[in-house]
Amino acid sequence: MSLYLNILDPTTKNDAVQAARNLGNLLAETPEYTEYITALKALNGDLKIQKFSAEMRGHQAALKWGNDTEGQHTAELTRLELEMQDQPLVQEFQQRENKLRTLLQEVDRVISQEAGVDFAVNAHRRGCACGG
Amino acid sequence: MELDEKISAAALQLGQALRQDARVRAYLDALEETQNDLEASALEKKMYEAYKGLITCQQVCEQLDSEVARSFYDLRQQVQTHPLICKRYDMLSVLQPHLNEVAEEINFVLGVDFSAMARP
Lengths: 132, 120
Description:
The structure holds two protein chains of two kinds. Chain A has helices at residues 2-7, 13-28, 31-44, 47-64, 72-85, 88-115, 119-123.
């Protein structure tokens, strides 16, 4: 592997980095992105959602530590998840997220086709071998 | 979905810049070598068929057929040690950190994990 690394000269690194930055700036101006950020901020700033999230984290932690012998945490978590899904702000956020996802997937399709390699799939940072 | 002209041009430009990168070219060469090698491509095809067989068996059979499982693991071993396929994997593992670095530039601007959201 080190042999391959030594013979490769990444001369066009800056071109790709500059092109990525330019693309990022253009994406930041799209309605899909600005509406997603607005929905995200609304979600994060809502006290009711914050309360739901905190409660959910508590139940998730209990499940993680195997502290659910009577299934009360699972049941409560399911109830909270359903209640969360009913919140208009959450539904709004999910819609905006899906629209942004569709845009980014199309952008990725163009990049990948031109590059000859699947960009997003291979750019995704893998966890460590321990599963982290 | 039709992309805005400027975004489409910027995505094309990024794709072109990546294609000119020595690591991408080395990976594409290794990929082509594997695809053109009859033994390597047949071996991979056979392994994927064996994998499908294994999955079907897991869903249908009450007990996993040890012959089916052994056949798959033997093929996987052959694939993993085939020189051309190993070279392709090596090239890809050299390339992936670079792609991650490039994607990080988009993430930095957007504050959103591009590669996580854009994956099909």
